[in-house]
DNA sequence: TCATGCTCACCTATTACTTCA
DNA sequence: GCTGAAGTAATAGGTGAGCAT
């Protein structure tokens, strides 16, 4: 018996979700997304430096590099490699509309439908959650020359050694610093992701279960989440996947164990039968060669004695009643 | 070429919070 | 309204890999 065990199953898959999100949205509304893949030449000289450091490693599934460009600034990029991904108006394709910018309140991010819980939910989500870019990640893209940093960043505020995730941000999507926010922020705030956000992340996860920094950033912007939140979501999602897979494997191994136990019992019984047969009818041993046959399907053994001998009653109902291909074992 | 330190992404365990029956 | 279980966002600590020196 062969047992196959698969734990984890993290087979890297090519990145598809971004392209997918493009096609799924561009045909419906005026909102599309523009993604530029791979071939680029040092956008503002910043990203290259960024990527040349440690960030270029860890590319398990990172087959593509994504650069988010805005406006018509993609001159340094091979136009043939562009995919629609970032929000832009089809009517005025040169003017991009970013959902995280105040003037773009009328457009929906890709993947967020305009139905119930769609735009309204997104706007609500924006008001509640947006605005935040972690310091380290914001700093990575916050070069004044970087086009990627054209949206306002939010930098965390540390209070009592803990970071206030809702620091300053004057973006209109940002959550206003209310009295509620001014409460003691030592207790960590846990924000529930909306259904739309979860669904979109889930779709992304189906395409690839790890993110490179660019994908993380793009996803974070699409969903108006902090990159850290996207990262954490993927980590937790991987953990859940692994846990579920472990449970499945455990169940499978449990059944295998039961099957093998049964098999072991049956074989023991078979062995006892044969031993009993051998001890109770020793005269058989005096006879010419006896043929022991085994049915490969039911795996029971029967003796096919020479014509003059009657097979033992204990085993006649096995091979004799089967029309199976028998394996003959010559015994003495 | 090897050792070392830094940075990053990831994993795992755990905590803290939310939702729901 | 209270409570416990389940789900999950977030945190902390550890590990391994790539890179620079």
What secondary-structure arrangement, pairings included, does this model have?
Elements: H1 17-26, E1 35-37, H2 46-52, E2 66-67, E3 82-83, H3 119-129, H4 135-141, E4 155-159, E5 162-168, H5 195-207, H6 213-223, H7 227-280, E6 290-294, E7 301-304, E8 327-331
Antiparallel strand pairs: 1-2, 1-3, 4-5, 6-7, 6-8
This protein binds a DNA duplex (21 and 21 nucleotides) through α7.
Could you characterize the architecture of this molecule?
- This protein has helices spanning 17-26, 46-52, 119-129, 135-141, 195-207, 213-223, 227-280; strands at residues 35-37, 66-67, 82-83, 155-159, 162-168, 290-294, 301-304, 327-331.
- Strands 2-1-3 form a 3-stranded antiparallel β-sheet. The protein has a 3-stranded antiparallel β-sheet with strand order 7-6-8, with no helix packed on it.
- The longest helix is centred in the last third of the chain and has 54 residues, at 227-280.
- Residues 1-186 and 304-332 have low confidence and may be disordered.
- The chain starts with 16 loop residues before the first helix and ends with a strand.
- Helices cover 34% and strands 10% of the residues.
- The protein is of the alpha+beta class and 332 residues long.
- It binds a DNA duplex (21 and 21 nucleotides) through helix 7.
């Amino acid at each position: 018996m062969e047992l196959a065990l698969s734990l984890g199953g993290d087979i890297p898959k090519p990145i598809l979700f971004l392209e997918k999100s493009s096609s799924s949205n561009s045909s419906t509304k005026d909102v599309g997304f523009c993604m530029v893949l791979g071939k680029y030449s040092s956008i503002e000289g910043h990203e290259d430096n960024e990527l040349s450091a440690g960030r270029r490693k860890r590319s398990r599934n990172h087959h593509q590099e994504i650069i988010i460009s805005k406006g018509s600034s993609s001159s340094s990029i091979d136009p043939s490699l562009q995919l629609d991904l970032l929000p832009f108006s089809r009517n005025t394709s040169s003017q991009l509309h970013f959902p995280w910018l105040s003037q773009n309140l009328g457009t929906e991010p890709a993947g967020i439908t305009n139905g119930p819980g769609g735009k309204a939910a997104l706007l609500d989500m924006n008001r509640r959650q947006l605005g935040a870019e972690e310091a380290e990640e914001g700093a990575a893209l916050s070069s004044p020359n970087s086009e990627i940093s054209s949206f306002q960043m939010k930098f965390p505020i540390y209070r009592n050694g803990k970071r206030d995730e809702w620091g300053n941000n004057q973006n209109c999507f940002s959550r206003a610093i209310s009295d509620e926010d001014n409460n003691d922020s030592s207790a960590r705030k846990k924000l529930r992701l909306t259904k739309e956000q979860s669904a979109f992340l889930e779709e992304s996860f189906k395409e690839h279960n790890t993110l490179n920094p660019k994908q993380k950033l793009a996803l974070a912007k699409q969903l108006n989440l902090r990159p850290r939140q996207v990262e954490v979501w993927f980590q937790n999602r991987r953990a859940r996947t692994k846990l579920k897979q472990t449970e499945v494997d455990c169940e499978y191994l449990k059944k295998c164990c039961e099957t093998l136990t049964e098999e072991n019992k049956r074989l023991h019984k078979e062995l006892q039968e044969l031993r009993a047969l051998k001890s109770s009818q020793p005269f058989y041993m005096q006879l010419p060669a006896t043929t022991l046959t085994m049915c490969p399907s039911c795996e029971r053994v029967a003796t096919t004695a020479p014509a003059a001998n009657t097979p033992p009653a204990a085993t006649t109902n096995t091979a004799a009643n089967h029309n199976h291909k028998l394996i003959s074992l010559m015994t003495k």
